[in-house]
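Students often ask why we bother encoding 3D structure as a string. The short answer is that it lets us treat folding as translation between two languages. Here is a chain of 147 residues written in the first language.
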Amino acid sequence: MATVELSFSALPVHVRTARLIVTAVARRAGVAETLLDEVRLAVGEACSRAVEAHLRHCPDEPVRLELTGAGKRFEVIVSDTVPGDDPMDALPSASPAADLELGAWGEGAAELGLAVIAGLADDVDIEATPKGVQIRMSWPAEAEATV
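And here it is in the second language, the structure alphabet:
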């Protein structure tokens, strides 16, 4: 399967559309029906985190997704363009309570979202760079793909 690329404006309403598209592509790539809810939820969390970061820092920049069904894996990459070294959007600290005490509610919510993603995806890699944050998730795609 070729890579499907999707970009959408940083509006919460577009997260639902992204989830629907990812679910359709995952089904076509051969992800088992029993895993589709996990794919949908994990991608929704990653997209919501990216939209929230964009709304604070760069509302005119789109959130980007790459969907690939190579081999026996279905991979989703959600990318934002908010620098990972920005204090408000750095990966969460080890202490959510400290984040809340400092008034950084967004960081505590981001940590919860990342925990949800880690629990739902088969494999997760989060990379924060000066150019943005990338969340890479994958699931097995061993079911027979539909055309």
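Translate back mentally: The radius of gyration is 15 Å. Keep this in mind for the problem set.
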